[in-house]
């Protein structure tokens, strides 16, 4: 079986979730960089591979996957023999899947709306108050998710945590997770930042911060990432 090929730009939160899992599972993966901010995703060769023109894109033998959540599940099913990240019990898997859908349909969608608007319109022309309201609603939801449990889908780290933390850390650039309002979310976020693989995410967040500030002609609030 050949090594998976991951087309990536680590400034993308969904890409970073895959890179974190790859590091945690010590998977041998060939990485091919696609510069989203230079339009490389629209080049003919890449469009032939992925008409959706998105990263991450994974090629593994005959399989082509173009969604980070599906890629996470695929990698876990093939390389996580212990079933730590993608539980073996059906009910536990469904809890993880539910959080993955929250990340893609709610949290990441709102994060992407904000960041892409800053890049397209520049910060001075963005209704930040509107985006703040939408994203802090997501913070409130995640705070409730953590009621009575350590992680997003229970008391064990799963794919849900890896997927959510890469997007949350991006939103955190603009709207810090304040311990007074979201104590459980802040505790969870701090725990995730202690993982060895988090450095993969942090490098990508820093790169994203720099390019968004440059294109958006502003500076994010000063804080620790």
UniProtKB/TrEMBL annotation:
InterPro entries, per this entry?
Answer: Glutathione-S-Trfase_C-like (IPR010987), Glutathione-S-Trfase_C_sf (IPR036282), Glutathione_S-Trfase (IPR040079), Glutathione_S-Trfase_N (IPR004045), GST_C (IPR004046), Thioredoxin-like_sf (IPR036249)
Q: What GO terms describe the biological role, i.e. biological process, of this protein? A: cholesterol homeostasis; ecdysteroid biosynthetic process; glutathione metabolic process
Q: Taxonomically, which superkingdom?
A: Eukaryota
Q: Which residues form the GST N-terminal domain?
A: 2-83
Record-linked Pfam families: GST_C, GST_N
> Which GO molecular-function terms appear in the entry?
glutathione transferase activity; steroid Delta-isomerase activity
**In what residue span(s) does the GST C-terminal domain sit?**
89-218
Query: Where does the sequence pass through the membrane?
Result: none
Q: Which family does it belong to?
A: Belongs to the GST superfamily.
> Can you name this protein?
Glutathione transferase
At the highest ranks, the source species' classification is: Eukaryota, Metazoa, Ecdysozoa, Arthropoda, Hexapoda
Gene name of the record: Dmoj\GI20072
């Amino acid at each position: 079986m050949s090594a998976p090929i991951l087309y990536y730009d680590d400034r993308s939160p969904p890409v970073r979730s895959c890179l974190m899992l790859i590091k945690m599972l010590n998977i041998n993966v060939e990485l091919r960089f696609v510069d989203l901010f230079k339009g490389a995703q629209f080049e003919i060769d890449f469009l032939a591979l992925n008409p959706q023109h998105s990263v991450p894109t994974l090629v593994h033998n005959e399989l082509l996957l173009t969604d980070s959540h599906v890629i996470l599940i695929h990698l876990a099913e093939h390389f996580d023999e212990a079933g730590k990240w993608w539980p073996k019990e059906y009910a536990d898997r469904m809890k993880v899947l539910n959080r993955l859908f929250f990340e893609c349909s709610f949290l990441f969608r709102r994060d992407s709306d904000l960041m892409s608007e800053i890049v397209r319109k520049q910060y001075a022309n963005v209704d930040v108050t509107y985006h703040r309201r939408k994203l802090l609603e997501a913070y409130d939801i995640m705070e409730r998710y953590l009621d009575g449990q350590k992680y997003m889908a229970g008391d064990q780290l799963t794919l849900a945590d890896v997927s959510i933390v890469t997007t949350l850390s991006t939103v955190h650039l603009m709207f810090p997770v304040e311990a007074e309002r979201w104590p459980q979310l802040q505790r969870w976020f701090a725990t995730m930042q202690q993982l060895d693989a988090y450095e993969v995410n942090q490098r990508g967040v820093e790169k994203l911060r720099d390019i968004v500030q440059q294109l958006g002609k502003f500076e994010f609030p000063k804080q620790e990432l």
